[in-house]
Amino acid sequence: MNTLFQANKAIVYFTIMALVLLFVGLNQSWALALGIINMSLISAIMALGVNIQWGYAGLMNVGIMGFAALGGVSVVLIAQQPVTEAVDAGGIKMLIALIMGAATITAGILLNRRGVNKWLIAAIVVTGYLFTRYYFSEAADIIEKVDPAITGYLGGFGLPIAFSWIVGGVIAAGAAWWVGKITLGLRTDYLAIATLGISEIILYVIKNEDWFVRGLKNVYGLPRPVPYEVDMQQSEWFQNVVTWIHKSELQLLSQTEQIDKLSDYVREAAVVFVKLCYSGLFIAILVALIVLSNLALNSPWGRKVRAIRDNEVAASAMGKDIKRQHLQIFVLGSAIVGIAGALLVTYDGIFIPTAYLPLRFTFLIWVMVILGGSGNNMGSVLGAFIIWFIWIQSGPMGLWFVEMLSNNMSEGSTSLEFIEDRVHYLRLVFMGTILLLIMRFSPSGLLPEKNKEL
Question: How far out from the chain centre does Cα 374 lie?
């Protein structure tokens, strides 16, 4: 029996998770259940990127926030309509400033490689910086003064939002290449510290450069790849489908009651339909990424990467370029995190820089990977569903727990008031407890990597 379970435990775990979500849909609401599913799918994509870095190559990336934020920025830059007034007012000056900055950095690097006098290089860099800063400050000030309550930034290119998912991955990959060239020579713990610090720098720039993506004022009204709920409610064919589904219930009501009830049904069905559309998109992307990841993992390239992870000294002795392989993995994993970040902003319909917190985009994602089993792509997906479900449902579970205590404790009890005031912290207790139990009883996760199951 135990052998049968071991052979089919992935199916067992996913079946249990599906039944739990079905229970939520039937007893709470289908909108809530689908919301959990969609956020779990996005988290699964993000966890897949981290799993590729840690599970495939043993690279500890704690800068997940930064790469996810770059994915979110790409949605704004690609999908939002350009702010014509801001572009006309300061767009050219900002472009000149950015070109001068890039030219200054490039000149400094090239001159240093050719052994030019250090003082001459310093003079060129300082001069370039001063000119860049002059044009940059003036352009930023002009742009941010263009209707700051609504815009105050350049906007985007007005392209289809689906294109921003690809761009998000490319931008995150480019940033990862730059970060990797600097940090991948560091030891694991120092690499973690360095990636965290660089991600904070990225977030600092996003939050403080209002001309770029409005800074802390957020960007709202982002376009969507699926219909709007209001449009679905006004659609005749959609109303007819909902009427047909609830035909037997509506027949028992009066005409006035039928109109009111049908309006409620249409409103609820529109929300569910839109979330289902999102689910279809996210599932398709997740499946494609898992298929590609598994193909790469089972290829000679994947075996080489795992060999480097297990014994760098032996792999290096066989002539393998360790740093190059680490850089490839770091770039690939970060690109997937960038795609997930773009999908998250697309799903929310708003870009909020302050939402990129270490607790949500670092700790939770790492717990998902550890819980599911590092090195196993399906384990990351399972961990994402379990952790996100508990993260969302911990509030209702905490309230239920307090209610049970109140039935067995006297009203006005100091202990009961203490627990009620801190019930929202229970989600952190749940996360810590899960992590401790997994590390104690299943260190390799619920779905370990195949060669680690023994």
Answer: 18
User: Which phi and psi (to 5°) does residue 223 adopt?
Assistant: -65, 160
* Dist. CA 33–CA 392, nearest whole Å: 10
Question: Is-contact 199 64, C-beta < 8 A?
Answer: yes
Identify whether the C-beta of residue 305 lies closer than 8 Å to the C-beta of residue 57.
Answer: yes
Report helix, strand or coil for 364: helix
Residue ranges in 114-246 assigned as alpha helix (H): 118-144, 161-183, 188-208, 210-213, 229-234, 236-245
CA–CA dist 380, 369 (Å, integer): 5
pLDDT digits (tens, 9 = 90+) for 285-331: 999 999 999 898 888 888 888 888 888 888 888 888 888 888 999 99
Residue type at position 151? T
Given a contact cutoff of 8 angstroms between Cβ atoms, the answer to whether 334 and 64 are in contact is: no
* Res 453: pLDDT: 45
Q: Is 91 helix (H, G, I), strand (E, B) or coil?
A: helix
- Euclidean distance between CA atoms 36 and 42, whole angstroms: 10
Contact between residue 24 and residue 36 where contact means Cβ atoms under 8 Å apart: yes
Please state, in angstroms and as integers, the Cα–Cα distance from residue 87 to each residue in 83, 140, 143, 219, following that order: 6, 11, 7, 17
The answer to whether 79 and 223 have CB atoms below 8 angstroms apart is: yes
Minimum mean pLDDT range among 137-146, 199-208, 272-281, 418-427:
418-427
φ/ψ (deg, to 5) at 154: -75, -20
**Confidence at 408, pLDDT banded by 50, 70, 90:** low
